[in-house]
Backbone:
């Protein structure tokens, strides 16, 4: 008599889906969500200031937007909004936030190299500006610093420029956007260029000359991100660049 084979019970437990990295289109769509969160966070600040001012006309809006206090608070408010949106994107990808954004300690030797290269690049742009009769510092920076000093909020502006803005922009551009695009058909080189273009478009308050400088700095930061596999590396370099630019503008304008 032959033995009867009893089939093994079928498990009803589903295997968890593996983590993923958003590729080109996923990164682009989530990037729009992150940018919308940034805009919303900044718009809330402007709305609150308008409400406190008690006037909602266009003239008041233009005055507020040109003020150092408004810019500082909007930059600071944009940071948690961006972090929350990126966290949602990485959670949907089932990957840890820090791993997705390469939040690793920066290699100190590469950090030193980055500081030297950044100084050479910025000095090169300053030389070109002087040779062509242009201002070394953007007029926008001088106006904002003067306004912040008049409002006694210069410390807040420095905090926004040198800490909040670098974290916000680097987590978004060299962290989230680069990560997804570098693993798509763009590869790292294409991701560096495209993310640098996005970063440049985030600085449309400058004219074409300074936008060129912003783009070149973005490419350098992208290369540093690729070489060091660390977004904290680019955050530090970005912060040092903004700090140097702030000090230079204060010195040139006597702010």
Residues:
């Amino acid at each position: 008599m032959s033995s009867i084979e009893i089939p093994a019970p079928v498990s009803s437990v589903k295997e968890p889906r593996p983590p993923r990295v958003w590729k080109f289109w996923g990164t682009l769509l989530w990037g729009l969500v992150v940018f919308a969160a940034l805009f919303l966070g900044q718009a809330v600040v402007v709305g609150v200031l308008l409400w406190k001012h008690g006037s909602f006309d266009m003239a008041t809006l233009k005055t507020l937007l040109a003020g150092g206090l408004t810019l500082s608070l909007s930059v600071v408010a944009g940071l948690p909004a961006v972090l929350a949106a990126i966290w949602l994107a990485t959670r949907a990808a089932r990957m840890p936030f820090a791993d997705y954004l390469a939040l690793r300690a920066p290699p100190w030797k590469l950090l030193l190299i980055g500081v030297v290269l950044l100084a050479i690049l910025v000095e090169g742009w300053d030389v070109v500006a002087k040779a062509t009769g242009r201002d070394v510092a953007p007029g926008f920076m001088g106006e904002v610093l003067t306004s912040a000093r008049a409002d006694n909020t210069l410390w807040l502006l420095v905090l926004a420029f040198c800490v909040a803005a670098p974290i916000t922009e680097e987590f978004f551009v060299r962290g989230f956007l680069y990560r997804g695009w570098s693993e798509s058909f763009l590869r790292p080189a294409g991701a560096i260029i495209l993310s640098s273009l996005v970063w440049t478009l985030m600085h449309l308050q400058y004219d074409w000359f300074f936008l060129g400088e912003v783009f070149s700095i973005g490419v350098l930061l992208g290369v540093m991100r690729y070489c060091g596999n660390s977004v904290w590396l680019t955050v530090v370099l970005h912060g040092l660049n903004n700090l140097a630019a702030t000090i230079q503008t204060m010195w040139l304008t006597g702010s």
Summary: The mean pLDDT is 89. The chain is about 75% helix and 0% strand.
